[in-house]
Amino acid sequence: MAKNHRSDRPPMEPASRPEPGTVLARLAAGPSRAARITHTEHLPPRAGRHAVWPDRIRPEVVAAVRAAGIERPWAHQARAAEHALDGDSVVVATGTASGKSLAYLVPVLSALVDGSEAPNGRGATTLYLAPTKALAADQCRSVKELSQPLGTSVRAAVYDGDTPFEEREWIRQYGTYVLTNPDMLHRGILPSHPRWSSFLKALKYVVIDECHTYRGVFGSHVAQVLRRLRRLCARYGASPVFLLASATAAEPAVAARRLTGLPVVEVADDASPRGELVFALWEPPLTELEGEKGAPVRRTATAEAADLLTDLTVQGMRSITFVRSRRGAELISVIAQERLGDVDRSLPRRVAAYRGGYLPEERRALERALHSGELLGLAATNALELGLDISGLDAVVIAGYPGTRASLWQQAGRAGRAGQGALAVLVARDDPLDTFLVHHPEALFDQPVESTVLDPDNPYVLAPHLCAAAAELPLTEQDLELFGPACEELLPQLEAAKLLRRRTRAWHWTRRERAADLADIRGEGGSPVQVVEAGTGRLLGTVDAGAAHTTVHDGAVHLHQGRTYLVRSLDLEDSVALVEQATPSYSTMARDTTAISVLETDVEVPWGDGRLCYGSVEVTNQVVSFLRRRLITGEVLGETKLDLPARTLRTRAVWWTVTEDQLDAARINPEILGGALHAAEHASIGMLPLFATCDRWDIGGVSVPLHPDTLLPTVFVYDGHPGGAGFAERAFHTAREWLTATREAIASCECDAGCPSCIQSPKCGNGNDPLHKRGAVRLLTVLLRGAEEAGQAPEAETRRSGDTGRTPEAETR
Length: 813
Known about the structure:
Layout: H1 5-8, H2 20-27, E1 37-43, H3 59-67, H4 75-85, E2 90-93, H5 100-116, E3 125-129, H6 133-147, E4 156-158, H7 165-174, E5 177-180, H8 182-189, H9 197-201, E6 203-208, H10 216-235, E7 241-246, H11 252-260, E8 265-267, E9 277-282, E10 286-290, E11 296-298, H12 301-314, E12 319-323, H13 326-341, E13 351-354, H14 360-372, E14 377-380, E15 395-399, H15 405-412, E16 422-427, H16 432-439, H17 442-445, H18 459-472, E17 475-476, H19 480-483, H20 487-496, E18 500-503, E19 506-509, E20 529-533, E21 539-543, H21 545-551, E22 557-560, E23 563-571, E24 576-581, E25 586-607, E26 610-630, E27 636-641, E28 647-657, H22 660-665, H23 670-687, E29 699-704, E30 714-719, H24 727-733, H25 735-747, H26 773-790
Helix pairs in contact: 3-5, 4-5, 10-18, 12-13, 18-20, 23-25, 23-26, 25-26
């Protein structure tokens, strides 16, 4: 433990790295530590398979690659390059550190060298899209290093919100390899396409890196942004080839086709070598503390991860700790720095936090320090999950299951990138899914990664992009096939709303405002809230509008760069949160309430006497209070009321009902009915990320003993994004497996009456009351028995119920 560092673990910089098993043994040393490891998976090393570059690649490019120390490509790199040269859009879906970047860079650089010989010196251009600014900046460095021997034929530049205005015109006129993100493409490049005409006219390739991250509502928006890009390219006479890179994913070609709207060839046979990976599953111990309703409380994943980061740093191991939230990244960094200071005063400066919301200069400084080795340990959100080429890391600690197996392997793959052995540790949160996974390792190690879920036809997504497209160029009948079949129904609605006007054979944007501003592609719900220090007026950073109610409400604790602030006031009208530096001994967590009404039932399937349904709902949500929790232990210190406005959401949901006969069979009386439904709802939300590419914070739920729209006891699970994100639909189609795993997770938990590891939820608006663990198990048993007797998958029976116009009084769980 950290308190033994001074005497037992002197800091060291190992000349040669110890084996990952040795590092794990050191982490597990000490009283009770070994018992926290529930499973260790050893992934053996793998030899690589070489090939040769296609002979159509320019010899200068091959020479530049050799000068960088790469004599021959891996087989999958050569195959992907061949497809790119043939004009086939291709997705490379291989493991982390398998050289996906080089697979698309070699044909791209070859085309740029060819283009430099054109009369105007700009015969070909490439657009590179990354989901984060950090990844684009990192890739730009790599491209410049690799292409240095090629001279001015490759002019690479980052074009994003951090690019100085004086550089932007040069990039538009002379850049041949422009690196940006979907946000800038959507808001900056496409609306200003006349200024980009020479670039778009010469566009040969579009590279989409880390394309598996484009899922849910964000992925659906990006799909429409790419359709707008293809439309403008066609206007300028270009038809670019799309080159996509993805972490290992199920059906990558299907997902890539849905994203781009084009046929895509799949290259998924990973021929790169891999060092040994030791992967440990780690469950924090139970404490003597009691949580809500007297439930046992485990030590937090944050505290455990901070200990592990401390120990790894003391051992001289280069490591990253991934954590789900910005606040968690800051907290782990602060705790580790404090404990390292007790060991050696030079060590705290070698650990830092990295997250979104930092100012550009802060991000760049941290990235440089990590690359140089100045930093040994980093506590990071998934902003560093995505492809930053951080070589030589020894270990990755993952504080809480990141939501998908694809993301888990992506994070674990950050270690061992130079081909050496590496250690990965998944630290379970006190959460149904995390607890289930650390005791069912086969669900992680014996299952394929998930399919990417996105829905470009979501009308809440498509409508603003039709407006943006019409503002760029009037929409014609010929364009509708590109944007999908839902256009036919949406265009009359946009005309009726006076957003579009049809003149002769085209639809035109009618407003003075920027049409691109209608689409919030990351689903953040408006302009970011600026976090400002009250005493100085200094801008500390930003918070997404959608998260402001829960993270920077009055009285919230806000962490930034290791410093703690208290929110003095949140001004929603001006999108400003005023904060002042403080040192509270607690963290804060918001509580909310939710009501839900059924708007339309698309599909309904009998499960015995009960029903499984999928359709449209309206959700009304309001943040009503916040809890103060003691740091480290998570003990609840008190609750404070808040007065924030309600927000409404029309979205998609899956729901199931049970009848009186089923309740009798499950021995559920009226006294425990609410608690049984509530517990089943909580656990099912916690387990859904195992079956859909979502996070529990992407979805919500409501359980009602008598819902006015169904007239039966009902449990709803809904997408937390306007129009839906595809998660509820995935839940509907995997409902039997999903709810079976939910029942098993509750039944196998060692607690007596329910705890955060099975049925208590960290975001429950009702304070986890009422809950009935055994009732939930019996209820799900009877429900699933009805599903078995029905003997059919959720398919054929379709019923549309129309708008009910009713809103029940229900509360979120």
